[in-house]
Write a structure and sequence with these properties.
alpha+beta; Ubiquitin-like (UB roll); 2 domains; five-stranded mixed β-sheet; 5 helices; globular
C-alpha cells in the first residue's frame, strides 16, 4: 500500500519537498514518524483526500494525506498577481440587496516590532477552493445573504498591496456586516492558506489566527 503525503509552508521547507511517497502506512497517526522531520509541531492537522480527519483514520492505497500547519488567511478565489477589488464588489451586486459590506486586508510595513519587506502566501489550492465554496454556502444560509465573494492572493505580495478582498451583499446591512466579519475570522482559522513574513534579517511562517 502506498500513500502520497503533501507538505506546505514551513513543513515543505523543512522536508525540502512538497510531496513524499510512503509505503505500508496503516493510519494517519503513523505518517509523521515516517517522515523523520523531528518533533511534531503543535496544532498540526491532517487531511485525507482533501477532507480533515482524525489521527486514528485508517489509510488505503492511493490516499493523499496533507499535513496542515496552523493556518493563516484564506480565499474563495486564489489569485496570482494584483487583486481586482472592484471586481469582488461587482460580483455581489444584486437587485435584492439593501447593502454590501466589504473588507480589504493590506500588507503593512511593520509587524510585531519588525520591518516587513514583503509577504508570501501559499495554499493547498484544491482543498482551499472547495472549503471556501462551503463557507460561502454556510454564510449565505446563516445570514440570508444575496451573494458572497472572497478573493485572496497567493505568492509574493508587496507592502501596501491588498492580500484579501471580501464582499457580501444582503437585504439588510446588519446581516451583511456580520457575515463579512465572520468570513474573515473563519478564513484565518480554518482555510489551508499560509503566510510568510519576510523582514529585514530573516523570515517566518505565521501561524493560526495571525
Amino acid at each position: 500500500m502506498r500513500v502520497s503525503v503533501r507538505l506546505f509552508a514551513g513543513l515543505r521547507e523543512r522536508a525540502g519537498t512538497g510531496r513524499v511517497e510512503l509505503d505500508d502506512v496503516g493510519t494517519v497517526a503513523d505518517v509523521w514518524a515516517r517522515l523523520e522531520l523531528g518533533e511534531e509541531p503543535p496544532g498540526l492537522l491532517y487531511a485525507v483526500n482533501r477532507e480533515y480527519v482524525e489521527r486514528a483514520r485508517e489509510l488505503s492505497d492511493g490516499d493523499e494525506v496533507a499535513l496542515i500547519p496552523p493556518v493563516s488567511g484564506g480565499a474563495f478565489r486564489l489569485v496570482e498577481g494584483p487583486l481586482d477589488v472592484p471586481a469582488a464588489l461587482r460580483e455581489v451586486e444584486s437587485p435584492d440587496a439593501g447593502g454590501i459590506a466589504s473588507f480589504v486586508g493590506t500588507v503593512r510595513r511593520r509587524s510585531r516590532g519588525r520591518d516587513v519587506l514583503h509577504l508570501e502566501y501559499e495554499a493547498y489550492e484544491e482543498m482551499a477552493e472547495s472549503m471556501l465554496e462551503r463557507l460561502a454556502a454556510e454564510l449565505t444560509a446563516r445570514h440570508g445573504l444575496c451573494a458572497v465573494a472572497i478573493h485572496h492572493r497567493v505568492g509574493r505580495v508587496e507592502i501596501g498591496e491588498p492580500s484579501v478582498a471580501i464582499a457580501v451583499s444582503a437585504a439588510h446591512r446588519a446581516a451583511a456586516l456580520d457575515a463579512c466579519r465572520e468570513a474573515i475570522d473563519t478564513l484565518k482559522e480554518t482555510i489551508p492558506l499560509w503566510k510568510k513574513e519576510v523582514y529585514a534579517g530573516g523570515e517566518e511562517w505565521i501561524g493560526r489566527g495571525s
